[in-house]
Amino acid sequence: MIFLQPVFLLRHGETVWNVERRMQGHRDSPLTPRGREQILTSGMEIVKQLESPQEALIAHSDLGRAKDSANLLHSVLGAPLLAVPELREMALGPWEGLTKDVIERDWGPSRHTFWQEPHKHITLEGAESIEVVQKRTLKAILTLVQNHKGRPLVIVSHGVALGCLMAALEKRPLKDLWKDRVVNHGVTQTIGVYEKEGEVSFQRL
After folding, report:
1. What whole-number distance in Å separates Cα of residue 147 and Cα of residue 142?
2. What is the pTM of this model?
3. Pairing with 184, which of 19, 31, 34, 57 sits 20 to 30 Å away (CA)?
């Protein structure tokens, strides 16, 4: 098995709505000063692990909080940026902009199913399914690896999207989707990309 490249998975920095405990989905709110510092610290951590950080590629969701985080990483690494819409957060329909307390009050059973029993499907108008998010995020990373083989990749995405992606990479059943739920902002996981007989696989580093 041949090691191809490292992939650094990052959740965007803390935002105003994160502090207010609001669900964001495809909506946005600005990074907080703490969120900016989280990303700058993550960038310095990545620099320590790469011989030539400027040769990496920073691929980011096209949502504002991820784009702003990617720009901060660029200021540290000097690596080029690439917007990848498939890395954006799950669309959460009517939950977007609402606090978690309001969602618990008005959609209690659906919220419980989403976080505790994700293998049981819930339907919210205007929201995406977990399967759709898994499919598009997995396609995004496979395309990036194919088009930039051997190049370190820095992926800036979102909490739910990264959770779905990691479950897909590790082939975990949906009931274990949140086994390693992404709660921290900044570097959340580093994975290695390997190739054997033309097949690509991913392993945690």
Report:
1. 9
2. 0.95
3. 57
pLDDT along the chain (205 residues), means of 10: 96 97 96 97 96 97 98 98 98 96 94 87 85 95 97 96 92 85 80 93 93
- Adjacency order of strands within the sheet including 153-157: 81-83, 57-60, 153-157, 2-11, 186-196, 199-204
Q: Is 4 left (phi over 0), alpha (psi -120 to 50) or beta?
A: alpha
Residue 4 near residue 203 (C-beta atoms within 8 A): no
Q: Which residues are catalytic?
A: 12, 89
Q: Give how far the C-alpha of residue 107 lies from the chain's centroid of Cα atoms, to the nearest Å.
A: 25
What amino acid occupies position 35? G
CA-based angle 102:108:113, to the nearest 5? 130
